Amino acid sequence: MSPARRRVLPACLVVILAAALGPANVFARDTEKSWEFGAYVVSSKYAGGAMIDPGVGWGVRGGYHFKERSELEGSYDMVSSNNSKVTSITYDVTKVSADYLRMYFIKGHEKMIPFATFGLGILGIDNGTDSLTSTSIRFGGGFKYFIKPRGALRFDLRGYHWHGDGTVTNRDPFFSIDFTLAAAFLVGGGK
């Protein structure tokens, strides 16, 4: 990883955490005490040293809005990809995570809700003969665009940090990025 990226990624993490833990006087649109469910398509880009090509996959998520601006969410996704050096090696990458989302309200844009997120998860990589499991730290953000009062399109960009094992991938810490496009549906709550 280049020295510039080593400085930029931790700085982005600090900004995202500051936004997520920021002042409580920001208003949010999401319904308090409602459940949110959805499915998504994910595009994953892995660090070059992991020797895993970018891949596309799918995922599901569910969360609970315990306050208007706060949500706890669980997600599962699976991505298939190839080795960047040896094309006959394929990887199945699975991620299970628990995340905290902090929603924000932008006056005049009630249909769009930006959010910051961070969480912990488990990343599994299987190449057909060996597999590894690593704890991952996730951070990112995105926005929900409500088409209906309880139906939205959701866009996420999340980075995550994980470690290789020396067998399936190099024994190094890696940063990777996911971009997701999702459908989200709210159930329950006051509205």
Structure characterization notes:
The protein is mostly beta strands and 191 residues long. Helix content is 9%, strand content 60%.
Q: How far from one another are the termini?
A: 48 Å
Radius of gyration: 17 Å
Q: What percentage of amino acids are in beta strands?
A: over 45%
How does the helix and strand content classify structurally?
Answer: mainly beta
Output the strand order for the largest sheet.
Answer: 1-2-3-4-5-6-7-8
Annotation, overall tally of beta strands? 8
* Fraction of residues in helix: under 10%
Element order, helices and strands?
HEEEEEEEE
Shape: elongated
Low-confidence stretches: 1-6, 23-28
Number of helices: 1
**Overall mean confidence score, pLDDT:** 83
Structural topology:
Layout (H helix, E strand, L loop, with lengths): L2 H18 L13 E12 L9 E13 L2 E13 L7 E14 L8 E15 L4 E18 L2 E13 L9 E16 L3
Antiparallel strand pairs: 1-2, 1-8, 2-3, 3-4, 4-5, 5-6, 6-7, 7-8
List keywords for this structure.
9% helix; 8-stranded antiparallel beta barrel; mainly beta; single chain; 191 residues
